[in-house]
């Protein structure tokens, strides 16, 4: 990883690093500490300093309470693919028993319904109106995928053509640092790494879900679709299919990306229930229910663990407590979204008040939530024995010539850079870090 300072404008701040390779196991640990990735960039927002705090949320796929409009979206699309003529003829040729018909009319099996209109699952004759195929493919670039991306950014997000490029698509949604592999977990084979879930209708690619498959979760990175299927609510269909993947392949959890309560366009992520929100201080998971949402209406920064301990979770001015209309969009990169853009890493603010987190101080000396302070850092992490690679040789940080001379509080020194990263990833992950020479020499 390469340590890099997050963009600080007004009071928006993220600590971020870059990586050339990231194991799915390690990245899952980061996600459960409030990190996300965008291409090879991994970043952790400062919720206390942000005007629009980003919270990690997740859903247990086995406990999904599907809503009426979500059921209708699936049924409407299935009917479009199959066609009325096929449905009538198939009912005669392949009649259901009374119990089967009753179960279908009174219940909703997500796995059954989500796969119902796929070409491989359709009984013929007769032939359906359309051929629908969903595949899980490597996250490599193809012109076919770029056509969908370009259309989605231009039509749905109103981006000017000059700001949409193949290079941007490749950098942020293809060639992930997460390697693909197949492993056996709990006796079941599971795919790990970054994939593109591709939706084709009559042979044409109409939607792509960019997914990170981690040991215990399906993490949604981005979802894009062609304008030709907009009427079928593809955002809902994509989310439900990802939840189904988490359930049937044993990942269990579905991570929808960051939830920004103050942004109306982002609240749709909370429509899939029950979801849990990650506490930015303790990293506990709390149910994202109406009570928590009411608290977020009143205070943008929320730590239920700190609240339970009687601590003041707001280290902000009255101006910061006002509800924001949503994140600004100074960054045009597609960062962590299913159906609506989220804020970029850097954002401009016209506020002239001082930031809550001072970017000139070492990370562990600030008030950024969930970051080890200096005392915790020195007592919980052995900074002298973090693994590094110098050219072809394996070594440890204490082998560096300047290691014992450097000041840990100097954020521009080698020791300060590594100490900040360790404070941000926490004790368990810090011991798994492998730094190359170029990583800690970069500033």
UniProtKB/TrEMBL annotation:
Residues 336-355 have a biased composition (Acidic residues). Residues 15-72 form the N-end aminoacyl transferase N-terminal domain. Belongs to the R-transferase family. It comes from the Eukaryota. The keyword Transferase applies. GO terms for cellular component: cytoplasm. This is arginyltransferase. Its EC number is 2.3.2.8. Residues 144-279 form the N-end rule aminoacyl transferase C-terminal domain. The keyword Acyltransferase applies. Keywords: Acyltransferase, Transferase. Residues 307-359 are annotated as: Disordered. SUPFAM superfamilies: Acyl-CoA N-acyltransferases (Nat).
